[in-house]
């Protein structure tokens, strides 16, 4: 196997490992047919022993399954195993496992062009603290990829995301593209706190004095819990329940060019507040485009949203 091909295979596996793709679903690309001791060390250093995993750990149980799979495959192929693989497995086995959040690391060249890694602290549970907003969902990945494929649409635009959750889509937008400002919004306290941590980690800026009169977010200080400093695009996090998207709030936010959202159409009980918020954004913030990505878990729920949306089409635009 050529050096380049082997490097590409290791990098591909590492990208999947970092964002916790199920071990059984990882594309191993027949790498075990060619993995000598030196190459095993390269794979180990790109995954479990990588600097980013040591600094911002991913779930220990996932690391255990990952290493166990590698060891089993190498043993079944009769390939000599590097001592560091056994050492890494022993170290990971000794790690305490708790219910706290761990990190996932999304290699941005799967959703962006720069190769940047976006690190997110997220829960391993589908529902945590009474919310689904503490983990990344498939629709956020799909929307991020779509945004990257349509970069010109967002150039110099003011973009607001509904139900930002962990912040993946907004972070891809703000770190990879060139919008004017990105508003990330949610309302659950735990989600907002986690989102703020994730934005700080990836944007690497501190909040600044919210009395700066030259900043667009000054007018919504009571809702703005974070905004980045000294960079473009500016990133702001707003505590914004959909029920609070009324005329006064919209006028405080000002004009918005595009509203995006991922995986917020899953509960029919929320359609009323969501659709009314969309109407108000359209009317008072002059929003002309709404771009949603939805996972079709229940076709009936999505169809109902489309029907309700259709009823108010003339109002939303």
UniProtKB/TrEMBL annotation:
GO terms for molecular function: transferase activity. SUPFAM superfamilies: S-adenosyl-L-methionine-dependent methyltransferases. The keyword Magnesium does not apply. It comes from the Eukaryota. The keyword Transferase applies. InterPro entries: FAM86_N, Methyltransf_16, SAM-dependent_MTases_sf. Gene3D superfamilies: Vaccinia Virus protein VP39. Residues 13-91 form the FAM86 N-terminal domain. One of its GO terms (cellular component) is protein-containing complex. Keywords: Transferase. Belongs to the class I-like SAM-binding methyltransferase superfamily. EEF2KMT family. This is FAM86 N-terminal domain-containing protein. It comes from Acanthoscelides obtectus. The lineage of its organism: Eukaryota, Metazoa, Ecdysozoa, Arthropoda, Hexapoda.
